[in-house]
Amino acid sequence: MIRDPNLDLTSTTPASGAASKAKRASVSVSADRKLTLVLMIVFPICAMLATNSFYKSVLVFAMINAIAAVGLCLMLGFAGEISIGQAAFYGLGAYVTAYLANQFHFEPVLAIAIGSAVAMAIGWGISRPLSRLHEHYLAMATLAFGIIMYIVFANARPFTGGLDPGTSVAKFAILGVDLSSMDRYFWVVWLALGLASLVAGNVAATQVGRSLLAVKMSAPAAASVGIDVVRAKAFVFALGALLTGLSGGLYAYFSRSFNASTFGIGYSIELLMMVVLGSLTRVSGAIVGAFIITILPVLFEHFEDYKTLVFGITMVLIMKFMPSGLVEGLFSLGGRLIRRKGD
Amino acid sequence: MLAIRHISKRFGGLQALRNVNVEAERSRVTAVIGPNGAGKSTLMNVISGFIAADEGSVDVDGTRALGLAPHRMCATGVARTFQNLQMFSDMSTVEAVVTGRTRHRKTSLIANLLMTPAVHREEGEAFDAARELLRAMGVPESFWTRRAGDLPYGMQRRVEIARALATEPGYLLLDEPAAGLNDSESAALGEVLLKLAQQGIGVVLIEHDIELVMNVSSRIFVMDAGTVIADGKPAEVRANPDVIAAYLGEEHE
Fold this sequence. Notes:
The structure holds 2 protein chains of 2 kinds. Chain A has a single domain (27-342), classed as ABC transporter involved in vitamin B12 uptake, BtuC (Orthogonal Bundle). In chain A, 72% of the residues lie in helices and 2% in strands. Chain A is built from 14 helices and 4 strands. Chain A has helices at 28-49, 53-78, 86-104, 108-130, 136-155, 157-160, 182-205, 207-217, 219-224, 229-255, 265-278, 283-299, 304-321, 326-342, and strands at 167-168, 173-174, 177-178, 257-258. In chain A, helix 3 (86-104) runs parallel beside helix 5 and helix 4 packs antiparallel against helix 10 (229-255). Chain A is globular. By secondary structure, chain B is of the alpha/beta class. Chain B folds into 2 domains: 25-51 and 67-77 and 169-253, P-loop containing nucleotide triphosphate hydrolases (Rossmann fold), CATH 3.40.50; 87-167, no CATH class. Chain B contains 10 helices and 10 strands. Chain B has helices spanning 40-47, 70-75, 93-98, 109-114, 117-136, 153-165, 183-198, 210-216, 234-239, 241-251, and strands at 2-11, 14-24, 29-33, 55-60, 63-64, 78-80, 171-175, 202-206, 219-224, 227-232. In chain B, a hairpin with a 2-residue loop joins strand 9 (219-224) and strand 10 (227-232). The longest helix of chain B is centred in the middle third of the chain and has 20 residues, at 117-136. Classes of the chains: A mainly alpha, B alpha/beta.
């Protein structure tokens, strides 16, 4: 018998159909880095220009989402591992953080760190049974995982507060210095996003990311050059869960009061939309996608009836004309314009 | 020596391999030929760890290797290519070959996540090694930064061999490398294989192109219906009446 369906030689299609459409040129990593850097400079400028605290909090929320989107980008875009259960890791990060802070009065940074680590451990743990699945089966399994975890969050009321009353945490502070105002918390999240995209960028630029891409493009070939396919998948699940858990921990201190409804399937799908919309293989794309998906609903606030319609049409147009994502599409458009100028 | 002994493998009711013995030496080209369905590719997959054999042993330079997972098999110094091209299509050509260097990477995961100077150095070395291999395989420089999947078929075949060579194998298993190549490409491939053998690599060639096999092989194993029916030097195999009946008679002259 063939030991591992991943290594089925009769299949000539790569492991992930949707993700494989994303083309990737070798010189693009540094362009991705530059755009990420630009974004990291643009955010503080936006924060300064934001006229009221509501817009500022939307910006912070977008950055929190961006951290989770970067995690999913590594999973789906690089390794071809689709996950429709990311809200589970987001919830794990948030609840473990809140629990440690409330029950044991952990320093917030430490609570977030442990929350992220727990999410990472669970991510690593579920990757093993999932490593034999791909495409629709993996999508279904992760969806099921997300649903199960949502039920746990909603019902483990002694720990999570369930749907009602939910849970709340104290103000975010570092060594007693209150950093909970949106102006200050912005920089906390900014730093976290900066670190997350730095690490993700390093994954993309080194053999680590190349091994993940290899697993996505041809698992048999990856194994034949010495890449442990199961380990590579476990790694990317752990890293994706870690970043999403970090995002959840930051969310706990951002909202300060939340209930299980935040961690349903809706959030997993939003994350998926962020990554697909922005870019599958660029860290900067995931960040841009997170911004669009977070901010669009706010912009269309006054057109409540048309919100979903505009949203849907935008998605369809992008999928149709820029199948590998908005950022990818803009990059290739830019490349074409530069070349035309050169002629 | 790559010693394959008493390998048997059954798929349901089909005895795909029955007590197969094949030996390949370093610095030689060893060919395994046979009609379609003879079990050549199954044997290749057993050797490289993709399929578990029911019985038998595979020894690589005296080390027991049967039952190892494919990525561990690679670490024993056995590299392979695939019958259906398995290219890292969306990578650039040079990156696809760099990926073959994975098992020679010394830097840790954490070092990579932090992108330490040692990682930069190692990346540079891996790219240099990959370019060297692409040059040696005759892949024109203009292709190196192109998307690997966009290269002409024959070139992708060469890139696949370069990728396997990047693992620095003691033995290189090639599953029908000449399939889809024209006569001159096929002849060029033959020269490459002989050159690899001169460098000390044991080349194991599974091939339908008899002309190529006869020209480059030191020893030929002929398989039919899951068993080895003959082995010897090209001239001996060509003269063997069993072989002619099973295989050569129909395809050669």
